[in-house]
Amino acid sequence: MGKLSEKMWSALNEQVKYEMESGYLYLGMASWLNDQAFPGFAHWMRVQAGEEMHHAQKMYKYIEERGNRVELLPIAAPPKTWDSVEDVMKKSLSLEKLVSGLINKLVDIAAAEKDHATSIFLQWFVTEQVEEEETFRTVLDQLKMVKSTCSAMIYLDNHMAKRGE
Ligand code: FEO
Question: 165: which residues sit within 8 A by CB, 6+ positions away?
C-alpha cells in the first residue's frame, strides 16, 4: 500500500482543516443562537460542531494510518453575528454543498492516483455529505414554512433540543 502520494496527502491534509473550520463555524453559530434565546437550535448546532470534529479526526487518523504525518493548518475565525436563524441555516447549507464538492474532488484525485484504499475510505464521506445536506435542507425548509412566527419558532426550538449527541 505504502504512503499517500504527495498530491493525495496534500488534499487530505487540507480537508482536515476544512472539517475543523466547519466545526468552528458551527460552534460560533451555536453560541450566537444561544444568545438569541434559542437553546434548542444552539444544542443542535453544538452537536453538529462535534460531528465536524469527528470528521476531521477520521481524516487525521487515516493519514497517519497510511504512514504520513498530519500538518495542521490555520483555521479561520467564524463571523460574530448572523441576520436570523434562517440565515444561519442558509449559510450552513451552502457550506455543506461546498464541502460535498471538496469531497468529490478528493475522490477524483484518489481515482487519478489509482489509490484504491483512499477511494474506499472516502466513500463514507460521500454518503455522509448526502445526509448532511439533507439534514440542513430539512431544517431550512421548516424555517421557511413557519416564517419566524413566535409560537412556531418556540415549537421548533424544543424539537431541535432533542437531537442526540
Ligand atoms: Fe464534515 Fe458537514 O461536513
Answer: 47, 50
CA distance 63 to 68: 6
Atom of ligand 1 nearest to the CA of 96: 2
pLDDT digits (tens, 9 = 90+) for 8-35: 999 999 999 999 999 999 999 999 999 9
CB atoms near residue 155 (< 10 Å): 14
Question: Helix, strand or coil for residue 123?
Answer: helix
Ligand 1 pocket, 157 CB below 6 A? Answer: no
What the block records as the C-alpha cell of 142 is: 421548516
In the predicted model, what is the mean pLDDT of the chain?
Answer: 97
Inform me whether the pLDDT recorded for 75 exceeds 90. yes
**Taking a C-beta distance cutoff of 8 angstroms, is the pair 86, 33 a contact?**
no
* Average pLDDT of the segment spanning 111-130: 98
Q: Residue holding cell 481524516?
A: 59
Indicate whether residue 55 lines ligand 1 (CB < 6 A).
yes
Sign of CA dihedral 103, 7, 25, 52: positive
For the question of whether the overall pTM of this predicted structure is more than 0.90, the answer is yes
Integer angstrom CA distances of residue 142 from 30, 64, 129:
18, 41, 20
